[in-house]
Amino acid sequence: MAKVLLTAHCLDQLLEKNYSVITTVRNEEKAQKIRDAYKSLGDRLKVVIVPDLAKEDAFDDVVAQNPDIDSVLHTATDPIKELVDPAVKGTTGILRAVNRWAPNVRRVVITSSFASILDEAHLHDPDTTFTEASWNPDTIRDVGRSPATAYRVSKTLAERSAWDFVSASRGAPSGAEGGSGPASFDLVTICPPLVLGPVVDHLVSLESVNTSNERVVDLLRGRWRHSIPSQGPVSLWVDVRDVARAHVRALEIPEAGGKRLFTTARYFSNSEIAAIVRNGFPEYADKVPGPEVQGGERPEPHNTFAFDVSFTDRLLGIRWIDLETSVKDLVKTFKAHGL
């Protein structure tokens, strides 16, 4: 899943910047893997098990036991089943716990998705421009349309629930300890499209590779040899390291508070990915499609939406990693894992 990959990079970048971090995982196996990877850090990293993110008050214990935390990143993995309800509960659960037990928290950064920005009815409309202010209009009534729609609705409702929580809490009366009075924190949401890029070797295995990177696994295993698949109606992408960097900067930049950020490195196509691997890694020549193989091209400008991320670019000041660098770095990590 994309969030596993992203969480690993966020953890890496926070620790590299000398933050003290409390991270949550779902089981002891994952917890021990993180402890082993960062054992030299001592008490600067604490790993806590939260087995069910959708459980009522799932985060209360970990937050109540660490009331001095001052910032929160929420990048929880999307559940496989019952997408909508757990996505919303996981998001509101962490916000409620922070509001009850962590009065020093001044900012919460939540990973959302371009899925909460797009409008399926206008993905092929060149007169539609998506920005940080755009919202997916689909609701719970639309989840039966397709699995993709159900996923997009889950992301939209989860993000809306976060903004609604903060907005509602602003008008709430002060509560007693453990209550749910006015929130002391502001909120930032990060909305990336498709996420590509290398795994963190010591934290992520090939078995847990995210859905976005699976396309490169398929390419390297010869599944595109005779036909390059379409990347679908959304041809935007971003490198996972830049998404992690956006989360860290969103914690640090005062002006980010109360903002939605739309992080993208612009357009890509599956045919471009195939060409990068073909030209950069001759050892895969018998697996990747030749230049004559068709498919996977970018949609024509008259058949796709436009976008404007000038606000996010200006605020974060990130020089986005280019597609060639991202794909090459990803392939190198796959090679290191024996692919």
From TrEMBL:
Keywords: Oxidoreductase
GO molecular function: oxidoreductase activity, acting on the CH-OH group of donors, NAD or NADP as acceptor
One Pfam family, short name: Epimerase
Database matches in InterPro entries: Epimerase_deHydtase, NAD(P)-bd_dom_sf, NAD(P)_dehydrat-like
Residues of the NAD-dependent epimerase/dehydratase domain: 8-259
Keyword Nucleotidyltransferase included in the entry's annotation: no
Gene3D superfamilies recorded: NAD(P)-binding Rossmann-like Domain
Source taxon at top rank: Eukaryota
Matches recorded under SUPFAM superfamilies: NAD(P)-binding Rossmann-fold domains
Protein family membership: Belongs to the NAD(P)-dependent epimerase/dehydratase family. Dihydroflavonol-4-reductase subfamily.
Protein name: Nucleoside-diphosphate-sugar epimerase
Organism placement in taxonomy: Eukaryota, Fungi, Dikarya, Ascomycota, Pezizomycotina
